DNA sequence: TAAAGTCTGTTGAATTTTCAACAAAAGGAG
DNA sequence: CTCCTTTTGTTGAAAATTCAACAGACTTTA
């Protein structure tokens, strides 16, 4: 498990918890490692939400399908991030979303009840971890609000610009890669793919942005 | 403060905490009561997010304005609910939204740092409260996901139906009042008001729903 | 390297949404 | 009760989005 310490140290759940305690905690949490190939479903919509995940490597997406099979991408997941924790912590819920591997993934599955209730060993790091988990959820909350702000825009153009502005703010740079291809970006922004492509071309012609594939520059 | 016990008992933050401990806790939290008239801003977008609120009476809305002043309603707040807690718990944030009184309101303002850090009295109910707060945030998270699902629909018609289905599920009844007037519903669903009215009329003509003002029936 | 498959940009037509303006209905104030 | 204000429904025109179809660019696989 030691090979994952680099990632786990960056995971907000273990903030200010030292390596020496990590191993004990992981077993205490009943954490187990799992692998998923590209396109595989890590968590399936509708299944019980007892476990949450920590992405160790690869990348994943949180998605939802409506009655007609239209895909909507809620967010991407990068290594070190938690996923599904809100559903696990709310209790008595089934998952309203799926989590799908975007490329081969390694994940750590954690039983949420082990986090929420102090372990029988009475280890004192639980308190820290619960605090960390709370802050993580607060931040996730804010992230979802951001998405609401982006997809709440009325036009495709405004959605694109709001998304790019958000990425600029998050990376601190006017030049960055986005984690989506065109279809995925469309599914994230809740717009039509061809309309999205057309609008991106227009923004390029107007000299507002530049991009090549998934690399964008704000001018 | 005793007159508010009825409401506070329903507040998720105080789940399983008995009345006798409540008074001590409230002072321990540095909670203070405040009143706001209709249309008054309880929390302003951009201001520091140190306090969160508990609505004691009245009703409020969490809203956001974009550059052009377009209003977007993120959610409504009813008595007993917390608001602003995610922003306060994420730390180092300013509010990305405003909270506005929809009618005369009484609120309890709570200093988030008092909740997150065990009080000097070392009262044991903090643990329970932190647990409650975490579950509250997890649920809020899920609520925002629901909103994302509703507003993520591509057409006005689908948004209306998704919203009404959500209300039906939440109330458990096919007949209910919605907490919005037409303009507010439009701002919540992120659509044009006149288009919304037109679509509601159409749904009525088609015999899919019935409504009078803000009372809706799913047929 | 060639072939097959996927992703992206373009286009035009059909559909929808937005916008602006107005009139009817409902609610509130005096 | 009447006047005034706010809310709601309707309409038509303008603008934007979606849809379907296709061609070229890029990837992957055999």
Characterize the structure shown.
Two copies of one chain form a homodimer. Chain A is an alpha+beta fold and 219 residues long. Chain A is 42% helix and 24% strand. Chain A has eight helices and eleven strands. The first copy, chain A, has helices at residues 5-10, 19-28, 85-90, 112-116, 125-151, 156-171, 182-189, 193-205; strands spanning 32-36, 41-43, 51-57, 60-65, 71-77, 82-83, 98-101, 105-111, 175-177, 209-212, 215-218. In chain A, the strands form three sheets. A four-stranded antiparallel sheet of chain A has the order 1-8-3-6. The first copy, chain A, has a four-stranded antiparallel sheet with strand order 2-7-4-5. In chain A, helix 5 packs antiparallel against helix 6. The longest helix of chain A is centred in the middle third of the chain and has 27 residues, at 125-151. The radius of gyration of chain A is 19 Å and the shape is elongated. The first copy, chain A, binds a DNA duplex (30 and 30 nucleotides) through helix 8.
Spell out the key features of this protein:
homodimer; about 220 residues; alpha+beta; 4-stranded antiparallel beta sheet; 8 helices; about 40% helix; elongated; DNA-binding
């Amino acid at each position: 498990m030691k090979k994952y310490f680099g990632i786990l140290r960056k995971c907000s759940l273990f903030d200010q918890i030292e390596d020496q305690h990590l191993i004990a905690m992981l077993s205490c949490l009943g954490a187990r490692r799992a692998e998923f190939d590209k396109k595989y479903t890590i968590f399936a919509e509708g299944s019980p939400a007892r476990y949450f995940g920590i992405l160790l490597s690869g990348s994943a997406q949180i998605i939802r399908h409506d009655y007609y099979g239209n895909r909507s991408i809620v967010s991407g997941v990068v290594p070190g991030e938690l996923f599904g924790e809100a559903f696990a912590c709310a209790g008595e819920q089934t998952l309203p979303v799926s989590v799908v591997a975007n490329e081969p993934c390694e994940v750590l599955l954690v039983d949420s009840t082990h986090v929420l209730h102090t372990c029988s060993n009475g280890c004192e790091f639980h308190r820290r971890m619960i605090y960390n988990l709370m802050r993580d959820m607060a931040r996730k909350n804010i992230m979802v609000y951001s998405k609401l702000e982006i997809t709440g825009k009325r036009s495709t153009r405004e959605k694109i610009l709001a998304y790019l502005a958000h990425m600029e703010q998050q990376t601190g740079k006017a030049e960055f890669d986005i984690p989506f291809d065109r279809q995925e970006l469309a599914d994230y922004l809740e717009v039509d793919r061809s309309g999205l492509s057309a609008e991106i071309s227009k923004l390029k012609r107007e000299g507002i942005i530049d991009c090549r594939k998934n690399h964008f520059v704000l001018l």
